[in-house]
Structure formats: C-alpha cells, structure tokens
C-alpha cells in the first residue's frame, strides 16, 4: 500500500513538473525521458525533501526589501523596480484563491534562487537545500525505482532514527551533564544579583568584591565568566544604592546639602527605571528556554546571552553613576555640580543625554539660589553650597566685606566673570535695601526678568540654559546698578559731598582757609594742652560765616568738624589741629575709616603748607619798606648801619628764595595734583556703571593725590626732606620777627636815650649804658642775627639741594615738571655743579 502511495506521489510530481516545463517558451515539447527533464524533476524532488528552517523572523515586508536592495546593489535597477511592483500586487491580493503564507513563498523563492547561483558557481548547494534522499536510479525504470526507494523522500520523513534529532538529543544530554544548574536558574540568580540580593548559585563574594557563581556549583568556565560579567551590574547597583542610603540618612547634615539631596533624587529616579527593566526581565525569565532542536513556544524567553544584550545600556548608565558616586563623596554644592558637569562633556549621545537629564535635577537648587540672589538679593544657602558667601559685618562694611565669592563652590559651567557679576548684582540689592532704605530695586529686577525672557518665579532657570542665565544677570545688573548710582547721586548727593571734602579738607575754598588761618593762628601757637576743641569749633563756625562757605548746603557744613590729634606735652596747637568730615550711611561705604585717614594725612600736609605760606606772608608784611626801618638808619654809626643793611638784605634774599620754592610747590599741589585729579575723578564718576567702578574711581583719585603729594611710602625720603625745608622756613619766620622787633626797639631806645628817668626801670636795656653802649649792643645783636641767618641760609640751601636732587628720581612725571619749575633758570643746577 505504501509503495502504491509513493508511486502515486511520484507520478503526480512528474506530471506537475512536465506541465510547468511545457509552459516555458524555450522548451515547448520536452521529452519526459530526456536528461534535461529528469534533471528538472530531480531538482523538484530535492526542493520537496529539504528541511527549510529559516534563521530570521517571519516578516514578508522585510525579506521583500532585502531582495529589492540586493537587486539594486547588483546594478539591476529595472529588475528591482519590477520586483517591487510584482510584490506590491502579490501582497495586496487577499481572499479566496490568494496565498495566505506569503512570507513562506517569498522565502522559498529566495532560497531556490540562492541555490541555483551556488550550483552555477560550483559551490556545495546542500547547505541551502539539505537532506536530499533521491538518487539518479529512481528515474531509470520500475526495478530501479523499487531498488533505490530507500533513498526516497518518504523514507527520510519516516526514518525514526533521524540523525539531526539524535544529535540535538545528545547535545542536550551533554549540556545537562556539564551543568549542575540549568540556565533558567542562573538567569534568575543574575537578576537577583542585579538587585543586590544573593541567589541560590550566584552570591556576593567579598574576596573578589563582586557577585559570582559559587565554586561548589558545577558550570562551564564560559558560563561562569558570563555570569561574572553580567553580575557586575549588581556590584555597581550596590555601590550607588549604598551612597544614596548613607547620604539620605545623614541629611540634613551640612556635608550633604540640597545639591547632594538633588543628586540622590536623580540617582533614585534612574534606579526606578532600572527596577522597571528588571521587572520586565523577571517576567520573561519565567518562560522556559527552548533547546536548539525545538521551536520556542514564545519568543520572550530569557537566556544569559539575551540578558547581556538587555544589560548593555543599563551597564553604561550604572557605571557612569558609580563613577559619579566615587567622585562626589567628598564634594557638595557647586563643587559637586561642577564635577558632574565635567563628565557631561562626552561624545556618546547616550551618555550625553543621560548626564543632561541628571544635571537638570542636580543643578536645580543651585540655579534657584542664583535666581533668588540676582532678583531678590536673598542668600538661600542653609548648608553653605552657593559660591556667594555672606558674613555679618557693620553697615559701612556691607559692600566691601559683607559678601564674597567662594571659588571652591563655583561650578565650572559658570565663568568667573559671570560669577563676579552675579555677586555684584545681589550685593547691590542688599546695599539698596539695608544701607539706602530703598525698594525701587524690585521694579528693576522685574524689568530685567521681562527683558531677558525669564520669569521671577521659582524654577525659571535650569542646567543647559547658561545663555539665558547670563542674559538675565546682565539685564539685572545693568538696571539695578543704574538705580543704585541714581540713588547715591540724587538722593544722597554723593558728588556734592565729594566737592565739599575737596573744598574744606583739601583746602580748595580759599577765602575760608585764609580766614580760618588768620583767626586760629595765634591760638595754635599755644601749647596743645591749653587749647580747647570747643573754642576751635567756634573759630571754625566763624570762618564759615565770614566766607562764601556759608552758602553751601547746611547738612554738609554740619558734617565738618574740628579734630584734635593725639598729642604730647611738648606739642603746639599747629601739631594737633585738623578738620574731619563725617560720613554717614550709605556714604561711609565710600568714605571708610581708612579713606578718611588718608584725607586726614592730606589735610595735615596741606595745612602745614598753608602755615608755611602764611608765615612767609607775615614776614613780608613785617619786612616791607616802611618808616620804621628807614628811620633806624639816622642816628646809627656807619659800622652798625652797614651791619643792619647787610642783615636786612640777607633776610630779603632768603625770603625770596623761600617764597619762590613755596609758591611753585603750592601751585604744583593745588593745580597739578588736586585740580587734575579732581577733573579725572569727575570724568570717571560720570562713566561709572556700578558701585565698584565708583569705588575704584574714588580710590584712584585719592591715591593719585597721596602719591603726587609725596605722602606715599615710596616718597618717604623726599617727604622728610620737604618737612625739613618747612621747619627751616618757620625758623626763618621766628628769626625775622626777632630781627625786626630788635630794629623797632632800637628806634624807640634811640629816641629815649636822653631820658635819665628810665635808667632804673630797665637796668639791662641798651639805653642804660648810654649811646656808646647802645651802639655796641646793636652791633652785637645784628652780628648775632646775621650769624643765625647765615646758618639758616646754609641749612636751607643744603636741604633744598637734597630735595631737588630727589625730584628726578620720583616715578610721577608731574614731580619732574616740578623740578623744572623750581629750577627753570638752572640756578640750582649750576650751584650744585660748583659745589
């Protein structure tokens, strides 16, 4: 019966092949016994007897696209278009008479095509169409068919001892003998290890610091290595999880902070996605792993190799998180954000996107601190994480010392220049609020937020928006700094106060200074212990009322006060008298104690210079030609008269030299130093854009005055030489006064020489000895005064020569021009060369 069925099937196949071949135009009348027909029939049986087990998923569209691309790459574009058109028609047909399993038909045609090409190229085609069981004798006759029927297709299918199935069974037995546990158990243990949990066979080994298959479990070395590689994810997970737990247990400790808390929250979010993946994998692990010889009942089973594919992306993320955890253990705040930012500079899109997502969460508290500081002036930094640090100080030190940058907390994605601008913007708001009692900054901050396109609400800024942050800071700084300067200039009259200091402390108000010098001069000549500051304050008020100073703002005049310097027992009033200007909030930010001390040094220097000038003017008033000196020449002997004329001439020449020096030096101070410095300061004050610029301009102005006035540390030598000259001029004043007092007394005594009644009243006077004694005493007095004048002149010339020799050595160009003014006739240069 079986033979009849086999013969019937063979005949049907032969008839089918004959009909198909007859429809070919090239072989219309092919003989069934011809070699070509038998070859075609044999090939048909070979196809029917082959085991076609595809290694790809059943996707008709994919295989059609593959065939179309193959034809196109081979240069057969027209064939590719024809195939695409035929396949479209073939795939669109549905219903009765259509092919249901379209993918299988297309795959069969592809295999047949590949097999024909292999036969043409002389390759072994059994690879594509294996298990052919038909020999050539099957087509030689009935006897041959019966004889060779053992090689037929039906025998292959009926063979209970199929070698392929037997080989798979032997392989399954071999695998079972080599593995004490099956792969499903290992997969589940690996999934447990990836959650930090020990499984039956895979446990944490402290010696190797990782998860591995226990040594007592018998598995192949390759399996053991793969399990170790996959379990690395569990070791990384354990490190990250431990860091999160420890950090959150320590919160709210200062070493964790809000940025550290945000970092832990970001890591926890990533671990939540990781947990979801493990849940999916655990569900797939419940499906059994099919043998190679079996077809899987479900494609969602999980093997170790499939697990390695699933773990590729989580492994990259977990390794990166572990690296960040190690890096950030000892960091906090801005330093932590900066360290994480450095790892975001990566070319891998996966790593870059992951780090961007992580940094948005981590930097959220930091950007909120920046927003609050720039727009509200609030330092919301409980744990010291911000790169701006505040400290309690006095009101006058709020701007200079109240807030500083903390470089260690400055993240690398914020430049130092931007950080300085952020610092200054917040300081400006606090200065306006605390020192100026002004709230107009709020409107300026709102305008800045609107101009930059951001919002004043929380969460308006985030990581990756550095340009938006910089734009916001620039707009806020521009508006708030402008408002701050407007408040200082208009409400607190900063410019007017600077001008008042120039007028009174720098002696720019000439009539006031001259009148004050005249009325306090006699009092300041007394010992300092005998002078009352209240009396001097009265003199100051009198000088104000008697000069144009009375028309200045009363608030500024009330700030001008007399200050008595610390003094000893031998000091005079000239040594301790000074003026001071009271700087109140917020001007004391500019006029600090150190600044006012510099102004005090400049005032004392200028006051000493004015005293010297005043002394020379007093000498001139005394020594100008008048009736006293002219009448003194009448009754004197010729020798005494010559001595008197010599002394007077010596005094006049010395006064001219001193006056030349003092006049030119005072011109240098008042115009080359004070006026030029004030002009430059006024220009810089107008160009200032913020309070720092204003402070820098004022500091430059004051330093220029101190430096050019020979009050700096580098000018100590020449300053001492200058003060020696001042002392010599004051000594000259006292000697000149003595000389003219003596001449005046000589005139009086000459008129009274005949009055005997006065002899007893003045026993030590020149008159008591008669005219001869008067002439002798006058000669001795004039000789003594001439010696003193010569001594002063010699010291003055020597000191002046030393002073002039030091001027060219000074750094300031203006001092070199002062040397030119003092020696424009080269008199002192020639004198120095002769000496």
Could you walk me through the main structural features you see in this protein, from its secondary elements to its overall organization?
Residues 187-490 form the Gamma tubulin complex component protein N-terminal domain. Residues 496-828 form the Gamma tubulin complex component C-terminal domain. This is Gamma-tubulin complex component 3. With 835 residues, this protein is an all-alpha fold. Helix content is 66%, strand content 3%. It contains 33 helices and six strands. Strands 1-2 form a two-stranded antiparallel sheet. The chain is rod-shaped.
Blueprint (SSEs and pairs):
Elements: H1 2-22, H2 35-49, H3 60-73, H4 77-92, H5 102-120, H6 142-147, H7 153-158, H8 163-178, H9 183-193, E1 202-205, E2 210-213, H10 221-250, H11 257-285, H12 304-310, H13 312-327, H14 333-342, H15 349-362, H16 364-376, E3 388-390, H17 398-401, E4 403-405, H18 416-435, H19 441-452, H20 466-491, H21 494-504, H22 510-524, H23 533-545, H24 554-558, E5 560-564, H25 573-576, E6 577-581, H26 593-623, H27 627-631, H28 638-687, H29 691-708, H30 716-751, H31 770-806, H32 813-822, H33 827-834
Antiparallel strand pairs: 1-2, 3-4, 5-6
Helix pairs in contact: 1-2, 3-4, 3-5, 9-10, 9-11, 10-11, 10-12, 10-13, 11-14, 11-15, 16-18, 18-20, 19-20, 22-23, 26-28, 26-29, 26-30, 28-29, 28-31, 28-32, 30-31
């Amino acid at each position: 019966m079986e033979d009849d069925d086999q013969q019937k099937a063979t005949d049907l196949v032969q008839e089918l092949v004959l009909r198909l071949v007859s429809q070919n135009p090239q072989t219309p009348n092919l003989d069934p016994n011809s070699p070509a027909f038998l070859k075609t029939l044999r090939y048909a049986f070979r196809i029917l007897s082959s085991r076609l087990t595809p290694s790809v998923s059943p996707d008709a569209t994919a295989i059609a696209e593959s065939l179309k691309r193959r034809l196109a790459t081979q240069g057969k574009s027209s064939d590719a278009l024809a195939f695409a058109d035929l396949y479209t028609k073939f795939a669109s047909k549905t219903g009765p008479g259509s092919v249901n399993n379209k993918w299988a038909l297309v795959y069969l045609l592809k295999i047949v095509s590949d097999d024909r090409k292999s036969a043409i190229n002389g390759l072994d085609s059994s690879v594509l169409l294996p298990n052919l069981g038909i020999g050539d004798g099957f087509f030689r006759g009935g006897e041959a068919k019966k004889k060779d029927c053992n090689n037929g297709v039906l025998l292959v299918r009926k063979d209970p001892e199929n070698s392929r199935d037997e080989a798979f069974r032997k392989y399954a037995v071999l695998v079972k003998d080599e593995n004490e546990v099956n792969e499903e158990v290992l997969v589940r243990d690996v999934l447990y290890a990836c959650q930090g949990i020990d499984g039956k066979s895979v446990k944490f080994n402290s010696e190797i610091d990782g998860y591995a298959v226990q040594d007592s479990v018998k598995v192949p070395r390759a399996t053991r290595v793969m399990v170790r590689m996959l379990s690395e994810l569990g070791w990384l997970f354990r490190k990250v999880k431990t860091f999160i737990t420890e950090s959150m247990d320590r919160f709210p400790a200062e070493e964790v902070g809000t940025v550290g808390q945000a970092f832990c929250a970001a890591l926890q979010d990533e671990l939540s996605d990781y947990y979801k993946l493990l849940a999916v994998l655990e569900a797939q692990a419940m499906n059994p792993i099919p043998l190679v010889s079996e077809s899987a009942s479900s494609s969602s089973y999980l093997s170790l190799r499939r697990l390695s594919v699933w773990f590729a992306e989580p492994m990259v993320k977990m390794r990166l998180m572990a690296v960040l955890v190690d890096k950030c253990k000892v960091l906090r705040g801005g330093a932590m954000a900066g360290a994480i930012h450095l790892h975001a500079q990566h070319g891998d899109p996966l790593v870059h996107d992951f780090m961007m997502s992580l940094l948005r969460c981590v930097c959220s508290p930091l950007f909120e601190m920046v927003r609050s500081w720039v727009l509200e002036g609030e330092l919301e930094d409980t744990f010291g994480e911000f790169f701006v640090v505040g400290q309690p100080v006095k009101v006058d030190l709020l701007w200079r010392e109240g807030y500083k940058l903390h470089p260690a907390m400055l993240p690398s994605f914020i430049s130092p220049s931007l950080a300085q601008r952020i610092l200054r913007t917040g300081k400006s708001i606090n200065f306006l609020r605390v020192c100026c009692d002004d709230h107009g900054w709020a409107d300026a901050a709102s305008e800045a937020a609107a101009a930059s396109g951001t919002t004043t609400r929380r969460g308006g800024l985030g990581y990756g928006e550095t340009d938006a942050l910089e734009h916001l800071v620039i707009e806020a700084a521009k508006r708030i700094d402008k408002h701050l300067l407007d408040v200082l200039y208009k409400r607190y009259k900063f410019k007017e106060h600077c001008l008042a200091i120039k007028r009174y402390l720098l002696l720019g108000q000439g009539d006031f200074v001259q009148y004050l010098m005249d009325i306090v001069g006699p009092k300041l000549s007394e010992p300092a212990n005998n002078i009352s500051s209240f009396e001097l304050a009265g003199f100051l008020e009198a000088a104000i009322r008697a000069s144009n100073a009375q028309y200045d703002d009363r608030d500024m005049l009330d700030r001008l006060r007399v200050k008595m310097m610390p003094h000893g027992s031998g000091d005079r009033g000239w040594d301790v008298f000074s003026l001071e200007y009271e700087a109140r909030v917020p001007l004391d930010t500019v006029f600090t104690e150190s600044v006012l001390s510099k102004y005090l040094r400049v005032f004392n220097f200028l006051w000493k210079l004015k005293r010297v000038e005043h002394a020379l003017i007093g000498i001139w008033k005394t020594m100008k030609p008048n009736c006293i000196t002219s009448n003194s020449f009448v009754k004197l002997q010729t020798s005494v008269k010559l001595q008197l004329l010599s002394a007077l001439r010596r005094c006049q020449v010395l006064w001219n030299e001193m006056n030349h020096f003092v006049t030119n030096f005072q011109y240098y101070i008042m115009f080359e130093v004070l006026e030029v410095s004030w002009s430059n300061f006024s220009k810089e004050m107008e160009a200032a854009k913020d309070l720092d610029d204003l402070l820098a301009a004022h500091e430059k102005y004051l330093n220029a005055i101190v430096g050019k006035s020979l009050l700096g540390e580098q000018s100590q030598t020449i300053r001492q030489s200058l003060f020696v000259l001042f002392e010599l001029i004051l000594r000259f004043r006292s000697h000149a006064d003595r000389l003219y007092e003596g001449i005046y007394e000589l005139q009086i005594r000459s008129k009274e020489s005949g009055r005997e009644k006065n002899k007893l009243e003045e026993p030590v006077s020149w008159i008591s000895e008669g005219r001869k004694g008067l002439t002798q005493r006058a000669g001795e007095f004039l000789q003594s005064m001439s010696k003193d004048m010569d001594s002063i002149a010699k010291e003055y010339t020597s000191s002046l020569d030393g002073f002039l020799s030091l001027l060219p050595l000074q750094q300031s160009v203006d001092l070199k021009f002062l040397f030119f003014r003092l020696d424009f006739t080269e008199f002192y240069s020639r004198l120095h060369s002769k000496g």
